Amino acid sequence: MTTLLDTALALAANRIPVLPLRPGKVPFANCRRCTDNACGGRPNMKTAGPCACPGPCHAWAAATTDPDIIRSGVWRRAWLRASAVAYHPGGAHLTVVDLDDATAVAWARETLPATQVVTTTRGEHWIYLGAMPSANGVRSGVDIKSTMAYARYLGPGTGTMTALPDAVRALAVKEPPAVRPVPRSVSVPAPAGQCPHRSPVYLERGIAMAEQRITAARAGIHATVYGSFLAVLSTHGRCGCLTDAHVARLFAAAQAKGESARHCADAWTNALTTLGL
Q: Which 8-state DSSP code applies to residue 23?
């Protein structure tokens, strides 16, 4: 009888990084020495980091192909408590399109190139050769699992794996929504290409400072985004020097902190309204 450990070792032998999952299909929690990343490695599980913890306690970042680690005592104990084997698709240069229901599966069959397909509890995993940033909710019932993510191993599936298509990469691209044009002041004529009250260098510095403020925020992201938008508009919202490219930079900074495109648009509109623009 094949055990989870046997399955993990077989995957690792094919250069697919693996990790055990607890009941509930979730990774093992940080051990005591690594709680709240006290170990100093793998902050927010975004990098493999220098942590020397021998256990599988850093989710996808703990995934490994090293059979000695997988068979080690602390990992072996984890396998005895585990309910499933997971793998890090990005670490194997793979991308999993996770289709969560019949509607999503039907969409994929009409839209995406055929590839290796694995049946899941509620839908299918479509597996492509190639890595990309992971993204959840790219459309209803569709998640992308690749770098900085894990997927359950549910068997070899059927079909032939094909190269990651642009159609899948495009799903993860967050396009900023159309931005309401900022009205130009008719009372203060401005030389072409120059802010009427400050130099273009000042505008660039203001945009960069707003980006930095959003990026550096550790809490209160919504309020920080709105405040940053308000600060930029209060200084440059009436002179007509803001362009779609400037606004796109601010939206991109906010989305990188987890804000949705909808929230960015709402925050921008609210700032315009507050300033009477």
A: T
* pLDDT over 60 (residue 48): no
DSSP codes, 164-225: PPHHHHHHT--PPPPPPPPPPPSSS---TTS-SSS-HHHHHHHHHHHHHHHHH--S-HHHHH
Residue appearing with tokens 């990309």: 132
Rounded to an integer, what is the distance from CA 210 to the centroid of its chain?
Answer: 22
> What pLDDT sits at residue 186?
35
Name the residue with tokens 């492509």: 128
Which residues make Cβ contacts (< 8 Å) with residue 222, sequence separation at least 6? 259, 263, 267
Other CB atoms within 10 A of residue 259 CB: 20
Report d(CA 88, CA 100) in Å as an integer.
19
CA 230 to CA 254: how far, in whole Å? 14
Average pLDDT over residues 216-220: 76
pLDDT digits over 7-41, tens only? Answer: 999 999 999 999 999 988 888 888 887 776 677 65
As given in the structure block, the two tokens for residue 45 are 């599980």
Q: What average pLDDT does this structure show over 115-142?
A: 94
Higher pLDDT, 119 or 30: 119
Chain segment 88-102, per-residue pLDDT in tens: 999 999 999 999 999
Whether residue 70 contacts residue 131, with contact meaning beta carbons closer than 8 Å, is answered with: no
Using alpha carbons only, give the angle 127, 261, 178 rounded to the nearest 5 degrees: 115
User: Phi/psi at 162 (nearest 5 deg)?
Assistant: -120, 170
Query: Are the C-beta atoms of residues 129 and 160 closer than 8 Å to each other?
Result: no
| Tokens describing residue 30 | 């940080």
Q: Using the 8-state DSSP alphabet, how is residue 121 labeled?
A: S
How far apart CA 118 and CA 99 sit, in angstroms, is 10
Asked if 226 and 233 count as a contact pair (C-beta separation under 8 A), the reply is no
